[in-house]
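Give me C-alpha cells for this 229-residue protein.
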Amino acid sequence: MLSFPELATERAAVITAARSVSSDESSARTALKLGPKSVSERLRNLVLDVSPTLPAIDRYTGVLYDPLASLAADQSTRRWWEQHVVVQSAMFGPIGAGDPVPAYRLSHDSRLPGLRLASLWPGVASGALAERGEGLVLDLRSEGYRALGPVAGAVPLRVVSVGGDGRRKALNHWNKTAKGRLVSLLGRSGASVSSMPDLVAWARDNGVLVERVDDGWDLVAESLGAGVV
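Here you go.
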C-alpha cells in the first residue's frame, strides 16, 4: 500500500488517463515525450496493476537516486529513509521512500487526455503533505515536481559550486547528485534534525557546508564529494 491513501481517487484518475494514452503508440509518443528507442516504455503503463514492485528508493534511478546506493544500504539507513523521505511522483503523487512502486512512464510535464497534472496534484498533494507532521521540511525537488505539491514553510536548498575566486555559481543538472549525496549521508548517519540550525550543525560535523544567504540557503556541492558517502 502507498502512503497518503487519501490520494487514491486522484491516483486512479492519473492511472486511467496514462493507460488510455499509452494504448496508442502515436499518442504515447507525444504525450509521454518518447523517442524511437523509448517508445516501448509506454507499455509499462498498461500493466501497472500486475507489474512487480520495488521500494521507491530502489525503483527510481538517475543522478539524484544513484548516490543513495540503496541496495547496499544497511537496514538502519533504509529505515531512516522510509521514515523521513517523501518522493514526488507524477503518477502517484507524494509517496514514501519505502512504498512499493511498479515501473511506469510519466513525468510532471506529460500531457494526459482530459487531465492536467499541474491542476490535479497541487491542492490535494499539498494538503496530504501538510498533515504529515510539523518540523523541518527540506524541499529537494526540481521546480516542475515542486509545483505538483507545494509545501508551505518548506526550505529549498540551492546547490552551488564555489570557484577559486570565491564566487558562487548555482548548478543545474549536477545539483541532483549533491542532493542525492546529502540524503544518502543523512540516512547513513541517522541524522536527527528538526530545524535549520540543527541541520547546519549536523552538516558541519559531517564535513558538509550549508550556509544562510540573503535569499535562502546554499548547499556547497564541493563539500559533498563522493568520498563523504
